[in-house]
């Protein structure tokens, strides 16, 4: 590990107004969701200390990854061949050779399902365990709202007090906005912005770039910030609201926690390990995810690309073959190896899935277009590892076309229950919305075969 740079020298005095501006602009607004929670959690015995959710935003096709149908007709099976994994009788796509070699650490659920065929609604469902509320004439109107159900990280932040400057949730390198739309299901919803996960921003075109949310302005260091914050508390002048000051306090605690700053600097890693993850946004995101759980962040959402990277309506096979699957295979397999080597895999639940699958039948939207696959929520895969999960197994089964489950289905509520159980939170815990109505965290049941190998 490299040495932390010494704090910047203080070149001039800073006014109270300047401090408030620094706190609101650099600390408060760029670091939401870091307030200490005010409620105790209704806890169970958790299997994991942290959860990493790897979201393949846009939707990964089951036929082209973890549930191939080589006996189906060409118009369904597609161009890719299955390869034998390290588990006899289990096959993955030929473009996932590293994950195939690590199949003994993976549990693949092939019967995930829900009814939502729209990205906006499906992402909310998968990342909260709850369907979104209708708010407009169409699903395209269901952009992010403070009436949304909170995401996993926000619930953890709401239920569990955190004082030492480690955030309860981090999302990276998520681009929340594409065009005029803000995607729902990735913030605290009705719990309020104080519980939003911290959004790290990494430029997909410059994966070596750093997020500067923890960079102090010239002339400020942690000691000086503490002194100025103390002076503010002694002032008789009007001050901001308690909620705003609470947010400043939490942001200041995070700025002063050197472990957080070091976790966001993967250049301190052995360059050979960085190469193994891959010097691209997938690799850098998952390397930072490992560094964050290593310092105790309980929920990390790592989105592989921007909002529709995996939405392969056109050019499904070349896009997967030449770009998406190799980068994913490299980064996720290295993450698993890295967690295992550091003794973190048993206490970190890793989940990888898209918001839905892709159509069994290959489509061609326009004459001459490169064929693709469209949205298909009726069945899709989810991959689990670590956190007590029994690897080397396949749970659930789809029909011979890869169109519908033929065994027990599991949906977003069951995924949510699995996440909360893993973290030691009772899925029956009640939280209250903005109208003070009690709502159960999720209505599903944890996917127990992940831990028991029981047939479903």
From TrEMBL:
Which SUPFAM superfamilies does the entry link to?
Answer: Alkaline phosphatase-like
Alphabetical list of InterPro entries matching this protein: Alkaline_phosphatase_core_sf (IPR017850), DUF1501 (IPR010869), TAT_signal (IPR006311)
One Pfam match = DUF1501
Recorded superkingdom: Bacteria
Q: Which PROSITE patterns match?
A: TAT
- Which PANTHER family does the UniProt record give? BLL7424 PROTEIN, DUF1501 DOMAIN-CONTAINING PROTEIN
User: This chain belongs to which protein, by name?
Assistant: DUF1501 domain-containing protein
